[in-house]
Amino acid sequence: MAYKSLYRKYRPNSFEEVCGQDHIIKTLKNALNKDKISHAYLFTGARGTGKTTIAKIFAKNVNCLDIKDGEPCGKCEICLCGNTDEIQDIIEIDAASNNGVDEIRELKNKIKLVPTSCKYKVYIIDEVHMLSTGAFNALLKTLEEPPSHVIFILATTEPQKLPITIISRCQRFDFKKISIDEISKRLEYIAKEESIKIDKESIIEIAKLSDGALRDAIGLLEQASSFSGNEITIDDIYLVCGNISYKDMCYLTDCYLNREVENAIIKIEEIYLSGKDFSKIVETMLVIFRNMMISKTAKEYFNEKDIIIKDWIINTANKISEKDLVDTIEKVEILSREIRLSNYPRILFELLFLKRFELKQIEILKEKPILKEIEKKVVEEPGAKSEEETKKVNEEITNDYKTPLINNTISLANNNSKKEIQEVLQNLDKYIVNKRYKTAATILNDASVVAASEDHILLTYKYESMVKNNDKEIQKIISFFENILNKNYKLAAISEEEWKIKRPYYIDIKNKKGEIDLIEEIEIPCNNGGGMSKEEEFEDVIEAFGNDLIEMEV
């Protein structure tokens, strides 16, 4: 005998065997008992929740030749049929492949014929939302007034796609997702019947991964059984479903919470090379953070739940605030939606950790004074350090100066200020030939303004070397803008590549909070006075007084 998939082999043949959907079964049994059979039913709900199965059982029961008190006799030729495929008067139609007007017209012609062996001709139209508009119109009149010997059962996972005129002519039943407990019990039964060795922990994990779809759960059990050779471990389940183990999941979560970005990137590369599904990993991470929140806010409810890593969740949740958890859940939820549509899910996942790390740097700047002592020494004791030490200090000051300034520029930014700066950058030619402004104007010729406010400017350059040139002459550049626009500015410059990384982070904060909090800024040390060099001053004087100038005292 040919092999039959487990979900087909263990498909229920009676209402008593159905897992879940008690409210629907009770209603249909009462209808049979009182002989109140409708001419059209609409079964809606997620995949794998029993819509087609219950439709077939109801089609058999309604045609039982000796039904009593709503229960089939179990002895007549209809009841003794193994499945509905053997009954000529129960017709199952796949609307996905028979969705045209011609197919529905052919159906309308056939329904006029009386049943051959049953009381009713039952048409089960699966995935009915796939019918074309013309097909729906052709079906509408027949669905409203079918012959007395015809029953329609329409099944769909997407009822919102059905015309309201179709829905209003049917009795609607909404199928709920099947609970983890009910799925687990059914899997235990199947595993016992098939001599599959599997522990309770693994069964529960399959039930969770199936997301309320019993058919998916049975399929995953079968797949894991084929992979492992009838002795299933929880690691086997992770391997076949494209997810990672809870050990790795906990490790990644710890990396995120502790801002260990390098360790996270190494683990993500390992996951990527093993071919795992990042969308499933993100979904699992979202569930973990959700469980952490529940463990903090609804302890009694959480303690009653059967959760594999419950102790770890409780211990980890104690190390993070509720506010941080809420913010994290929002970030991961947004990522779970974006990652399904992306061609580069690994990069999006890595970005989650990079943003967390960058947030740490900003928080550090908020919490303590930044290099005040170093700044003081550089300003007050310019000769106290070697050239190499001074260069190192200047680099540190530049980095700590920029981070809050970038944040505050974006927070305070407005279009009018940005346009004002853009206009200056578009007219640099006249300043490049001016001895007073040529250094600043030459550097700014390669700059683009990405944000500006009344007293802040954020510039980008294509290359990092250009950014360094800007930083080296930053006082001249600030002085340039102040002289041209008669305003006092604070200015920072970064590379275009760095802006691509930072921009999504600030957009995310803006979308969620509506505003970006300001951060305390530090003053950049004045290392060149912001004015002209001696050579530039000399040239400026010659231009003003002519070549007869013999000597200039300074």
- The appropriate CATH architecture of the largest domain is 3-Layer(aba) Sandwich
Report the end-to-end length measured between terminal Cα atoms. Answer: 106 Å
As a percent range, the share of helical residues equals 55-70%
Main pleated-sheet profile? 5 strands, parallel
Instruction: Report the count of strand segments.
Output: 10
Content-based structural category? alpha/beta
Number of self-contained structural domains:
4
Strand order of the largest sheet: 2-3-4-1-5
Low-confidence stretches: 364-385, 526-535
**How many helices does DSSP assign?**
26
Concise overview:
Helix content is 56%, strand content 9%. The chain has helices spanning 6-9, 22-33, 51-62, 101-110, 133-144, 164-167, 180-193, 200-209, 214-228, 234-241, 246-258, 261-273, 278-297, 299-304, 310-317, 322-341, 345-367, 372-380, 387-412, 415-426, 429-432, 438-444, 464-472, 474-485, 496-513, 534-545; strands at residues 40-45, 90-94, 121-126, 150-156, 171-175, 197-198, 231-232, 448-452, 456-461, 490-495.
